[in-house]
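INTERNAL AUDIT FORM
Audit reference: QA-55
Scope: verify that the stored structure record matches its stored sequence.
Auditor: D.O.
Record contents follow.
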Amino acid sequence: MPAPGKTVGKAASLFPLAGGLFLLLLVLAALSLSLGKVDVPLREAIQGLFAEDPPLTSVLLFEIRLPRTILAILVGGSLGLCGAALQGLLRNPLAEPGLIGISSSAALGAVCMLYFGYAQVFPLALPMGGIAGALVVVFLLYGIAGRDASILTLILAGVAISSFAAALTSLALNLAPSPYAAYEIVFWLLGSLADRSFDHVMLVAPLMFLGWVLLMSTGRALDALSLGEETASTLGFHLPRVRFAVIVGTALAVGAAVAVTGGIAFIGLVVPHLLRPLVGHQPSRLLGISALGGAVLLLAGDIAVRVFSPGLELKLGVLTAVIGAPFFLYLILKTRREMR
């Protein structure tokens, strides 16, 4: 672990990077709020919010565009932070939230709500099903792998859960009661931020914040873990507690994210990789920066799908997969070259 004085010096050098990302996030947020089929002057729309009879532009801004922008920031930040924490815990640069089955299980929980028709009766059934699916993963992981499981056992248990959840999702599609139901499930799985409201924001934001707190609390332990499990234990870190904090934090944050957006892949993989060299490859310094980077990347992606496909909107999950899959292939080839 770095000496205390050295750590303070490195932390100070993070401000230009964090400040730049935060400034970029503000610019993108303003652009996101101004984009749409109807021209909304931001200044007039914000002033209209305080009028007795708000104009249509103010209603559009507050009820449609603002929740979408906030969710893009929250979801992107959650995916970036979880990716950085999992890569630090598993000491694997190819790790991402989907590796331990959280994304696929959250998707299965939401698909069950669509399949059994609860989503048509109760609008928030969809995100609540996704959150429930993500939380079930924690119990399954520890039920299969055990409380003091090694990292390899956790990964294998996560892969098994992820495969089983994907199989059950395919089964739901196969047995869908009607072509319309199958169409609805497939479109939800593709991932999108369209037509979300403040109800979605209020439902998932507390869970995400709780997950962020858990993940951010593991920074020093992740630094120690980069030197090996034995060294981290020698330095006084209780590794089962660290694993529990990262897994539960990821389940809360990613489960809530998938519950409102559907499948958004590769953000948690790509963002930590792009930013890791800029923070000196130190896991604790990567956490907050990856959260900012994830928010910037997902908000930029959401703007892109609105600008480049104004008619039949390109799904956000499709765009992230198109960008992320080649990047994942590049990482595999790079890792192979480094292992020679």
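Auditor finding: record pair retrieved intact. The two ends are 28 Å apart (CA to CA).
Action required: none
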